[in-house]
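Repro:
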Amino acid sequence: MSASGDRFITPRSPVEGLRRRKLSFLPVFAQAVAGVAPAGAMAVIPALVFPGLVFGSTGPNLVLTFGAAMAVMVLVSFCLRPMAKRMAAVSGLYSYTAKGLGQRSAITAGWSAMFGYGLVAMASLLAVGTYVVQLLINLGVPIPDPRLIAVLVILAAAAAACLLMVRGIQVSALVTFSVESISIGVLAVLMIVYFAVNAPKVSVASVLAWNGNFDSLSIGIVVAVSAFVGFECPTTLGGEAYRPFVSVPRAITWTPIVTGVLFILAATAEDIALNGAPLNIAASSTPLSALFSQTSPAFAAVLDLGIAASWFACTIASVNALARIFFCMGREGVAPRIVGRTHPAFRTPSMAIMVVMPVVAIVPIAVIISGASPEQGLVNLFTLGAYGYLGAYILASVSMPFFLRRIGEDTYASWILGTATFLVLGAVLWQSATVSIHTGNLQTFVYGGVLLASILYALFLRLRLPDRLASVGIYDETREIDLFHGKPTP
C-alpha cells in the first residue's frame, strides 16, 4: 500500500474466477477480428445496408464513407490505447470511463456499450439465418417455409455460440479467427472470379464521384461505423490475456486499420458490381449472393456459407464482450449478483452468457416471425447498434486524458486527442440524429431512451445504494501470489 492508503497488491482479484493470464496475442487479436466480422461486414454492409440508405443520386460514394469511418475509428483506438496499456480491464470501455469520468458516467457508458454489443449480436444472428436460407435456395433445396428454417437456424446458431462461449474464450476465439480467415479468402477469390467473367458496366471514376451532400454522408458514416464496431472487444480480455498491456493495445490499434483497408477495397468492388446490376438484385435481401447466382449458383452458395460463418463469429465476439461487462456489473452489485458467477471448470462468465444469449436470440426471431423484411431488420439493428457504440466511444475517449491525469501522466497531446475525438464523434452522432429525426425514424429516440434510463439508474444508485455505485470500475488487480510465486497462477 502507498502512504496514502491506496492498495497496489490484493490477496484476491475482484474478478477472481476467470481463467487469468492464459490468452496469447493470437486469441486476443482473434476477438477483435471476430468482433468486426470483416468478411460478413464486407459483404453485407456495403451491399445491403447502403442501397437503401445512401446509394443513388443523393448519396456519397462508399469509398469516401468508409474512409471517413475508418479515420474516426482510428482516432478512437488512439484514445483507448493509453488506458489499455495501464489497466487490465475486464469490462473495457465501462471500466475506462469509471476511472476517467467517474462511476455515474461509467453506468451510461456500460449500458451504451452493452446496447451496441447486443444489437450487433442480434443483427449477426439475423444475418446467419438469412444467408443460410439463401444458401439452401442456391443449392436447389426445396424450402416450404423459409421463415421457419431461418428461425431454426437462429436457434441452432445461438445454442452453438452459447456452448462455445461457456466452454472457453480461447476455444471460441480460435474458432472465430479461423472462420473469419477462411471467409475473407473465399470472398476475395469469388470477387476476382466474378470480375474475370463479368466485365464491369461502370467505371471506377463514376463510383468515386460525390455530389457534396453532407447529410447523407453523416448518416452513411454512422452505418459504416457499424462495420468497424467491435474492434475494441479485446479490452474486455485484460484479465485473461497473458500480456494484457502489450497484446490488448496492439490488437485495438491495428484492427481498424487492417479491416478499414479491406472494407475500402470491398466497397469499391461491390459498388462497381451492384451499380450495373438489375433492380431486383439491388432490392434483394441478399444482393451480393443474388449477383453471384447469375454466374454460378454454386459460387453463390459458397459465398452464403462464408458470410453466414463470419456473422456467427461476430455473434460470439459481441456476446463475449457484452457478457464480461455484465459479469463485472454483477460483481459490483449494480446488476443481479448471479451474473457475476463463473463456471467452476471452464472459468468463464457462464451465468452472464446464459442470461444474455436468449435475449439476443429472441429479437431476430421476432423480426422474422413479424414478417418484416430481413434487409430492413438489418438496417435498423445495425444502425441502433452503431448509436450504442458511438455513445460508449464518446465517453471512453473523453475519459482518456482524465484517466491519465489521475496517475500523473497526462500531456497536452492527450488532451488535444481526447477533445478532437469527442468533437468528431459528437458531430457525427449529432448530424445523423438530426437527419434521422427529420426523416421520421425512431432509432434516435430509442437510443435516447436507453441513455435516459442509464442516467436515472445511476442517480438511483447514488441516492439509495452509494456503496455499490462506489464499487463500479473493478479490474484485474495484481495478487500477492502473482508476485511472490514469480509467475501468474491459473
